[in-house]
Amino acid sequence: MKQILRTTDMATIAFAQALLQGEGIDCFEMDVNMSVLEGGIGIFPRRLMVRADDFTDAVRALRDNGIEVYDGP
Q1: Which of 23, 34, 40, 73 could form a disulfide with 44 if both were Cys (CB 3.0 to 4.6 A apart)?
Q2: Calpha distance 35→68 (Å, rounded)
Q3: What DSSP line would sit under 6-72, residue for residue?
Q4: Choice between 70 and 58, residue whose per-residue pLDDT is larger
Q5: CA of residue 40 relative to chain centroid, distance
Q6: Which of 55, 70, 63 is nearest to 5 (CA)?
Q7: pLDDT tens across 3-53, in order?
């Protein structure tokens, strides 16, 4: 799994997931349960992961729709 997106914006996460699912790319949202610890104030970013084989296609799909892809380590 490779991280493709990291954000505190839940709308961006939902849009990215819909785009990837529309392209037939499986994705997994991580850190969802952190909101319980933070009290729902949105300070901890959530991560969206895709399979390494799908990473290139996923990057293209997100960038084509104006979503910045995570360029971290």
Answers
A1: 34
A2: 23
A3: EES-HHHHHHHHHHHHHTT--EEEESTTHHHHHTSS--SPEEEEE-GGGHHHHHHHHHHTTPPPP--
A4: 58
A5: 18
A6: 70
A7: 999 998 889 999 999 999 999 999 999 988 876 666 667 678 889 999 999
